[in-house]
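Recall the central idea of this unit: under ordinary conditions, the amino acid sequence of a chain determines the structure it adopts. In this exercise we apply that idea directly, starting from the sequence alone.
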Amino acid sequence: MRDDLLDPPAVPASTPATFSPTGTPRRRRGRRRATGGRHFAAPPTSRRTPGVRQGFRPEVQGLRALAVLMVVTYHIWFDRVSGGVDIFLLISAFLMTLTFVRKAEAGTPFGLIRHWLHLFKRLLPAVAVVLLGTLGAALVLLPRAQWTLVLEHSWASLFYFQNWLLAAESVDYYADTSVASPLQHFWSLSIQGQVFVLWPLLFLGASLAAKALRLRFRTVTAVLFGVVFAVSLAFSIYETNTNQAYAYFDTRARLWEFALGTLLALALPYLRLPRILAVAAGWLGLAGMLSAGYVLDVEGEFPGFVALWPLLSAALVISAGQTGSRLGADRLLSWGPLVKMGDLSYALYLWHWPILVIYLVFRGRDAVGPVGGTGIIVLSLMLAYVTTRFVERPLRNLPKVEASRVRTLVVIAACLGLVAVPVGAVQQVMRVQAANLIAEADTQNPGAYSLMAGFVDRSTGDSPPIPDLGSLKGEWGALAGECEGEHAPDGDANVIRVCAFKPAVGTPSKEILVIGDSHVEQWVEPLELLAERHNYQLTTLLLGGCNYGTASETRSAGCNSFNEAATAYALKVKPDAVLTMATRSDKKTSAERAVAGLPEAAAVLGEAGIRVVALRDNPRFTFNMIRCVEEHGAESDKCTFPLSEKLAATPPVPPAEASNGALRFVDMTDLICPDGTCSPVVGNVYVYLDDNHLTTTYTKTTLPEFEKRFHDALR
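Accordingly, the structure predicted from this sequence is:
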């Protein structure tokens, strides 16, 4: 689902380049010989030199069209990625290199400011249209819980940092990646936009170096981008092997793909394949392109060395050029409708992904069939045509705008403003709504207070549940301060990455240390309120997906290292108590189990006089509880389950002697699933923020009972 199509870079209108500002072939004036619906600058019986030359290369345009069709069909029907994004990164660098090489060798100034203005004036109008269309569709068709995601991704897409946002989310345990963003396909446009700024600077540096050293620009450029290729590829291989999810979106791990396109453009004048070899190279490259997505795990293995498969395949097709043979792959790629499809490729890519994602979410499906998929493609083509015909081309063909930097800048600013204003306005409205809900929470949203003795209901019954669905990212317990000085963990900072601290006023009456995963983090909010009441010093050591205990084969090596370091930290600071999790529930069954190694870890801490308070896990579900409420309502049977189906009848707590009496158990289940029923909303407060995590808005309403049970455990 992470495969993208990018339009080639713009070419300044003043340069006699092969491609127009859109990357669309510019038809040259003069006589052309028509053969089979194709246009050639030379008789089709003669072999054309596949080097860098001025003239229309329809096979490259057809290559783009074929790649976008691969991307679209793979996304819609095969739930895979095709490797097409890598091909387009190569093509974009290839075309950009042709432009700057011609300028350098003709002695024409690069005009970088004009180049960048022209480029983003070309790219941003379609981006603005798609972002506005996606935002409007999201507000109408998507659940409110997803609006924040769309709004945040709109900013990231508009300003070309979507790849870094997705890279951070890919390694963020707390990021909700259960539903794809309708704008996540902008990650590759972001990478390309960053390279569109970097590459001209490198060309300028090569030009200055060539003049200073009295060397050919082409030679210096080849050396420079050869180094970029080697360094980036080595880094890409390393990061893909160590952190593939992050590497997929990392610009640094993709630079070598652009560099390969640059090196291909520099080498083409010297690649003169005999016709028979050119025909073979074209078909071999085409077969490699089409097969990569089926053979390779593009999403799981890219962008490491395996990405050479589609890239070298595309390079073979480009190197083969126009063979002049009726048997050549270029004859297929030069087919009129395919070439025309290339004109729509940029807009088609921009539209197809948001349409697909919104359709799936709105219909509550995980996949589309032949009819639905065909409908998505047809709608995408229609919107792509309208966007190209009535937005891209008119702005591209306005001479007064093209001739003026100020007017070009006005177009760019207008595109940015058209998106920024509504996105910012919707975010502000959502913030105001959330603030209004919080202001009324004491009377309208009692949460767990409604379950306690003596509760008097003062709500009017017409207020929505809290937290506001646009504020779910704030529903994670977190302390504001960082562990510093004597409170900082020793050793490798990569082992304990999240250490937060809340000091007491003066001398603390107790010191509490929280160790574990996101399920103990859920209780940091009421624990912090308790600490403020009693002047406790509070520290948290957290690692997502890692519950606390001695080393176990059921945990990852990183988790075992974290737990070892956490135990050492506890023995160093000697808190009065450690809070952690005692059990782990299961999403599909009631097969609750004890946390491995916890009694042994508690025994070690107990010998140092540290009490260990362990919480019972909350029920987990196979679906997102917030979305269930939005789709079916809080009272729906689809969102409510008997407690007996979610947790064991008797909690699997180890006997006291297993920890030498150091481990104390606390069960808050009766407040999470009152009267033996697990509901998504209690006391007009959302209990869950996803399929297994509690909202801190709800857990803090358990404060009176949490405080009582926690203190009972310390006695």
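The chain has two domains: 33-422, 469-714.
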